[in-house]
Write a structure and sequence with these properties.
There is one protein chain. By secondary structure, the chain is α+β, with helices and mostly antiparallel strands. Helix content is about 65%, strand content about 10%. The protein contains 14 helices and 6 strands. The strands form 2 sheets. The protein has a 4-stranded antiparallel beta sheet with strand order 1-2-5-6, with no helix packed on it. A two-stranded antiparallel sheet has the order 3-4. Helix 5 runs antiparallel to helix 10 and helix 5 packs parallel to helix 13. It is elongated, with a radius of gyration of 45 Å.
Length: about 475
C-alpha cells in the first residue's frame, strides 16, 4: 500500500507542475555545465574589443642629472610620446577572428544545451516507462487476485469436509483436475488415483464411497494448490513492484541532477506513455543537419583561421608610428657672446632657454620574412584541417541519422507487434479463464497466458520509450530539441 501511496503522491505533484517542456526550461536555466558554457561564450565576446584596439601609446622620459649645454640652452629633460598604428585592415581582420572565435563558443554552448535536452528527454521517457511498468504490474496483480477468487469458487466442494481440503494433498499443482476426477471415478475399484505428469498411488478407504471421496479430496486439494500457486505469483509481482519503485527513485535522482535541484524531489510524469509523432522527412533532416551546432562550430573555426591568415599577412607589412618629442631647456648665462658671434638667422638671445618641440614619425621594417611566412602557412593548414573536419563531421552525422532512423523503424515495428500480441493474449486470457472455470483448462495454462499479457505490455512500454528516445536523438541532430 505504501508503494501505491508513493505513486499517488507523484501523481498529485504532477498536477501541480508542467510537462516535459517545463523541465527542459528548468534544466537550461539551472544546469551548471550549460551555464559554464554560456559564461565562456560571454567571456569570448569581451575579446572582440581587445582585438580591435590600438596599441597603447608609449611615453619616454629622460632627465639629465647635470644639464647638458647646447646652443639653445641647458637641456634638462626629454619627453617622447609615440603611438603606433598597424597596417590598414589589420584591426578589422583581428576583430573578425575574435568574432568567429566567439561564435565558436556560442555554438559550443548550443551543443551543450542540446545534449542536456537530449539527456533530460531520455531520462524522462525512462521514468515514463517505469511508471507504465508499475501500472501494468499492478494491473496483473489485480487479474491474479480475480483468478484466485475464481480458483476458490471453482474447486470449492460445498459438501466436502474442510479438513480433507487442507490435510490430504494428492493432486499436483499443474494437474487438470476435471480429467483427474473423471479418471478416478472410473478407476475407483482399482484403488488408485491418477495425476497428469506424475503417478501417485493412494489407498481408497471403501469400495462404495471411492468415487465420491476421491472426487471430493482431489478437487479440494487441487483448489488449495492452485490458490497457493496464484499467491506465489502475486508475491513475485509485488516484489517486482518494489524493484520498480527502487529503480524509479534512482532514475528520479539522475533526472534531478540534470536539473541541478534536490535529488529527493518527485518528478511529474504523465499517466500514460504516448508514442510521439515523427514528422520529419529525409530531405528535411538532411537540410537541417547544416544547422547542427557542431558543424556551425567547425565552420566558425574555419572562418576564424581565414581571418587570422589575413591578419598575419597584414602584420607582415610595416607599422607606422606618430609621436612628439618635448625638450626642456634652461637658460645659459655664459656663452652668450660666443653665440652672438655666430652667423645665425635667428638671434640667439631670443632662443636661449626656450623649450623645444619636435614631431616624430616611426616606421617598422619587417625584413625577417620567415616568421611571417610561417604564420601564414600555419593559418592555411589550420583552415584546411577545419574544412576536412567539417566534411568528416557531416559524414558522421549522416551515418548517425541512418542508424537512428533504422532504430526508429525497428521500435515502431515492435510497438505494432507487441500491441497485436497483447490483444491476442487478452482474448486468449478471457477464453482460457472460462475454460479453467469449466474445468477444461489447467491453472498452468492460465498463468502462462497471464505472464504473456504482462510481458507484452512491458515490452510495448519499453519499445515506446525507445521510440521516443530515438525521435529525441534525431531532434538533437537537427538542433530542434525544445519541443
Amino acid at each position: 500500500m505504501w508503494i501505491a501511496l508513493w505513486f499517488s503522491s507523484v501523481t498529485i505533484y504532477a498536477s501541480q507542475t508542467d510537462s516535459l517542456s517545463y523541465y527542459l526550461r528548468m534544466a537550461a536555466q539551472n544546469n551548471p555545465q550549460v551555464k559554464a558554457a554560456f559564461a565562456g561564450y560571454k567571456a569570448s565576446l569581451e575579446r572582440i574589443p581587445q582585438a580591435g584596439a590600438y596599441a597603447d601609446p608609449e611615453l619616454e622620459i629622460g632627465y639629465f642629472l647635470e644639464p647638458m649645454e647646447t646652443l639653445m640652452g641647458k637641456q634638462k629633460a626629454d619627453l617622447t610620446l609615440m603611438q603606433m598604428f598597424p597596417w590598414f585592415g589589420t584591426q578589422k581582420a583581428a576583430r573578425t577572428e575574435a568574432s568567429e572565435m566567439a561564435r565558436m563558443k556560442y555554438e559550443e554552448f548550443r551543443d551543450s544545451r542540446n545534449n542536456l535536452y537530449y539527456n533530460v528527454k531520455s531520462q524522462w521517457y525512462q521514468l515514463c516507462n517505469l511508471n507504465e511498468q508499475y501500472k501494468n504490474t499492478a494491473s496483473n496483480i489485480e487479474l491474479l487476485k480475480q483468478l484466485e477468487q475464481l480458483a476458490i469458487r471453482r474447486f470449492s466442494a460445498p459438501g466436502s469436509p474442510a479438513g480433507i481440503t487442507v490435510r490430504q494433498p494428492v493432486v499436483s499443482a499443474g494437474q487438470n483436475v476435471s480429467a483427474a476426477s473423471s479418471g478416478m471415478s472410473g478407476m475407483s475399484g482399482m484403488g488408485t488415483s491418477s495425476n497428469i505428469g506424475t503417478s501417485t498411488t493412494q489407498p481408497v478407504s471403501g469400495g462404495n464411497m471411492a468415487p465420491m471421496a476421491s472426487m471430493g479430496s482431489n478437487g479440494a486439494t487441487g483448489g488449495l494448490s492452485d490458490v497457493l500457486r496464484i499467491q506465489l505469483e502475486i508475491s513475485e509481482l509485488e516484489n517486482a513492484l518494489q524493484t520498480i519503485q527502487s529503480n524509479r527513485i534512482a532514475a528520479e535522482a539522475a533526472f534531478n541532477a540534470l536539473l541541478n535541484r534536490n535529488q529527493q524531489l518527485p518528478v511529474a510524469v504523465p499517466d500514460t506513455l504516448i508514442q510521439r509523432t515523427y514528422m520529419y522527412t529525409d530531405q528535411a533532416v538532411t537540410d537541417s543537419l547544416f544547422s547542427n551546432p557542431m558543424l556551425s562550430m567547425i565552420d566558425a573555426e574555419k572562418r576564424a583561421y581565414k581571418a587570422k591568415a589575413e591578419m598575419d599577412k597584414k602584420m607582415s607589412y610595416p607599422m607606422f608610428g606618430i609621436g612628439l618629442q618635448y625638450s626642456i631647456l634652461g637658460k645659459t648665462s655664459s656663452g652668450s657672446s660666443d653665440m652672438n658671434t655666430m652667423n645665425t638667422a635667428v638671434p640667439m638671445n631670443s632662443m636661449n632657454g626656450k623649450d623645444m618641440i619636435m614631431p616624430m614619425v616611426k616606421i617598422s621594417i619587417p625584413i625577417f620574412r620567415k616568421k611571417y611566412n610561417a604564420q601564414q602557412r600555419e593559418s592555411a593548414y589550420y583552415r584546411q584541417a577545419s574544412e576536412l573536419k567539417y566534411a568528416d563531421m557531416l559524414n558522421v552525422m549522416m551515418s548517425d541519422y541512418s542508424a537512428l532512423k533504422q532504430q526508429l523503424e525497428e521500435a515502431s515495428r515492435k510497438i505494432t507487434l507487441y500491441e497485436k500480441q497483447y490483444q491476442l493474449s487478452l482474448s486468449t486470457y478471457h477464453l482460457i479463464t472460462r475454460e479453467f472455470s469449466a474445468g477444461s483448462a489447467t491453472l498452468t495454462d492460465v498463468i502462462g497466458v497471464e505472464r504473456q499479457l504482462l510481458d507484452y505490455r512491458l515490452k510495448k512500454s519499453e519499445a515506446v520509450a525507445d521510440y521516443n528516445t530515438r525521435v529525441a536523438g534525431i531532434e538533437k541532430l537537427i538542433a530542434r530539441s525544445l519541443e
